[in-house]
């Protein structure tokens, strides 16, 4: 990569980072190229030259966020860890991602950008699900998951948790101790209401 390419990549990264920071606090419809330009300290022309439109910039910035999150997820899951630690990490990641981007914002972005929604779904199906499936199979092989429980059962249970995550996040905040709340949820996932570790 020559000097020009490095500089261009650095400017693009700066613009996308600025856009993500603004998305964390602003409605996507209210973000203007002029605001991004001012905050990133680049010209509006530069933004249009790199991205073409605000919509394409929002998409590319969010895709970069998704790609990094998936890479971090894959790295963590490939380390030697107990199944319980991996499940806790999945819930922790959801909690952290919802702190950065509220579920309402993610839903709005996916509803308003079909290309982005398609990209996220493909990444979820082709990358995240196979990693989780492998984790479950390893858990079954190590005896951490009962032979009576299928991979499909565990995937369905995790999906149920994720589908209700926004509500669970609200309940966790109301509890006053989010970490303890999620530790209790992981405990119930593994041992049931009456079970013991």
TrEMBL record:
A GO term, aspect molecular function: DNA binding
Location of the DNA-binding region in this protein: 32-51
Keywords: DNA-binding
Domain HTH tetR-type: 9-69
UniProt key word Heme: no
InterPro entries according to UniProt: Homeodomain-like_sf, HTH-type_Tx_Regulator, HTH_TetR, Tet_transcr_reg_TetR-rel_C_sf
PROSITE patterns named among the record's database cross-references: HTH_TETR_2
Pfam families xref list: TetR_N
Keyword DNA-binding in record: yes
Protein name: TetR/AcrR family transcriptional regulator
Organism: Paenibacillus albiflavus
């Amino acid at each position: 990569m020559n000097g020009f390419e490095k500089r261009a990549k650095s400017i693009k990264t700066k613009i996308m980072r600025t856009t993500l920071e603004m998305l964390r606090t602003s409605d996507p419809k209210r973000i203007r190229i002029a605001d991004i330009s001012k905050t990133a300290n680049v010209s509006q022309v530069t933004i249009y030259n790199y991205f073409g439109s605000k919509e394409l910039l929002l998409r590319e910035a969010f895709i970069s966020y998704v790609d990094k999150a998936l890479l971090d997820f894959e790295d963590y899951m490939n380390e030697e860890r107990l199944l319980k630690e991996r499940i806790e990490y999945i819930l922790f990641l959801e909690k952290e991602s919802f702190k950065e981007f509220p579920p309402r914002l993610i839903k709005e972005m996916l509803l308003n950008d079909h290309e982005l929604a398609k990209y996220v779904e493909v990444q979820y199906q082709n990358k995240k699900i196979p990693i989780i499936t492998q984790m479950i199979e390893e858990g079954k092989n190590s005896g951490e998951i009962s032979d009576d429980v299928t991979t499909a059962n565990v995937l369905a249970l995790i999906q149920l948790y994720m589908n209700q995550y926004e509500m669970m996040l609200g309940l966790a905040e109301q509890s006053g101790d989010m970490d303890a709340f999620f530790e209790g949820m992981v405990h119930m996932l593994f041992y049931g209401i009456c079970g013991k570790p």
